[in-house]
Design brief:
The chain is 42% helix and 11% strand. By secondary structure, it is α/β, with parallel strands linked by helices. The strands form 3 sheets. The chain has an 8-stranded parallel beta sheet with strand order 4-11-10-9-8-7-6-5. The chain has a two-stranded antiparallel ribbon with strand order 1-12.
């Protein structure tokens, strides 16, 4: 067993183990991938202040996200097709999150269904939904989430249309994977992955196939998906979704202060500063650069989380210091899942927790709830000094 000390260690194993089609799906952004890269690299421009001769004992990373107790300010973000990275991947990730004490958010475009995850876990998880035109499907999706005792709904608002991801198009991305000479040749080198996939019945989009009208197989799913994403989405439409769900609501995909203020007005409990991991508008600001202006705009009107680019405990610490109540990780736990299944997700969480804990202590803080901008050295103009 290799020694895992950082998320990059899991990524190397993940790349060897998972078919190229699904590795590329995870490890890519849209167009030139500028935003995808800068989501991570911009964290490096924030420096930490080391303090000494301060009692570092009795540390705690425990806090709350939307009023729910968490072991550290981290949630597992919704990732489509997680069950293609590792057989029954959503179930494994949810179980690891539950045991660790952090929230798990299931994607609408998951392979395992809401019911699959609920049946295999004992604590509530969060449910992510897209802004689709199909009202009947949307209402039933929210009802299914209620029946599964989901403790929050997450509305993703930055996917009215799909940003072009070159690798996915070239690979012919699909679930289950289309069998072409190229994909077969690659999958033949991923035997452990294939053997696990053969042992599960879950290989289609479990929240859609058999639940959306007329969607009974992959071909009808493609047609339904192309027609369902709502390019006419506006804030009034989001208010309609709010009426369909009476529990805690999180709006994900905010990158501009004006949209953050709009989200405050529709009755959301939290927003997630996110550019979809650099997978939508390439050339957009990284999430960590966008965070401070959004915090300035909303103040304490709404809880603010951050997603996109988080690969370490230090990234979490820096985002919390900038004002975020918590961070969402996607790729970081997918690397672990693809590398080692449930144990890999646990290892990813352990790596992030240790780095958060140690770095927080070396900055002179023993409670994550006391972390603020004083632990950071922020370069002038970090969040932009733009011409109007």
């Amino acid at each position: 067993m290799p020694v895992i000390t950082e998320i990059e260690d899991l990524k190397r194993i993940y790349k060897r183990r998972v078919p190229k089609m699904f590795y590329d799906y995870c490890e890519s952004g849209s167009w030139t991938e500028q935003t995808f890269r800068e989501n991570s690299s911009d964290f490096d421009q924030l420096y930490l202040r080391q303090r000494v001769a301060i009692d570092m004992t009795g540390r705690s990373t425990a806090t709350q996200m939307i009023g729910q107790d968490v072991a550290m300010p981290v949630a597992l973000a919704p990732v489509g097709m997680t069950g293609m990275q590792n057989a029954d991947g959503e179930i494994k990730a949810a179980k690891a999150a539950e045991k660790f004490g952090v929230p798990y958010c299931l994607s609408t475009m998951s392979i395992c269904s809401i019911e699959d995850v609920a049946e295999n876990t004992s604590k509530p998880f969060w449910m992510q939904v897209y802004t689709l035109k199909d009202d009947d499907y949307m209402k039933r999706l929210f009802d299914r989430a209620k029946d599964a005792k989901c403790s929050a709904a997450v509305i993703t608002v930055d996917l009215q249309m799909l940003g072009q991801r070159h690798k996915d198009l070239k690979n012919g991305l699909s679930a289950p994977p289309k069998l072409t000479p190229k994909s077969i040749a690659n999958m033949a080198t991923k035997v452990p992955w294939g053997l696990e996939m053969l042992q599960t019945k879950r290989r289609f989009f479990g929240n859609i196939v058999g639940h959306a009208k007329g969607v009974t197989d992959p071909s009808s799913l493609t047609t339904w998906t192309a027609q369902s994403f709502d390019q006419a989405l506006d804030w009034d439409r989001i208010r309609e979704f709010r009426k369909m769900w009476d529990g805690p609501l999180i709006i994900k995909g905010i990158i501009d202060p004006r949209d953050a203020l709009e989200a405050c007005n529709v009755g959301a409990d939290a927003i997630v500063v996110s550019n979809h991991g650099g997978r939508q508008l390439d050339g957009a600001l990284s999430s960590i650069r966008a965070l401070a202006p959004i915090m300035d705009a909303v103040g304490d009107k709404i809880e603010v989380h951050l997603d996109s680019g988080v690969r370490s405990g230090q990234d979490v610490l820096k985002a919390v210091a900038m004002g975020a109540k918590g961070c969402w990780i996607g790729r970081a736990y997918i690397y672990g899942l693809g590398a080692m299944g449930e144990a890999g997700v646990t290892r990813a969480l352990e790596v992030i927790h240790k780095e958060l804990d140690v770095s927080m202590a070396l900055c002179g803080r023993t409670d994550v709830n006391t972390v603020d901008r004083d632990i950071l050295m922020i370069p002038k103009g970090f969040s932009g000094d733009w011409e109007d």
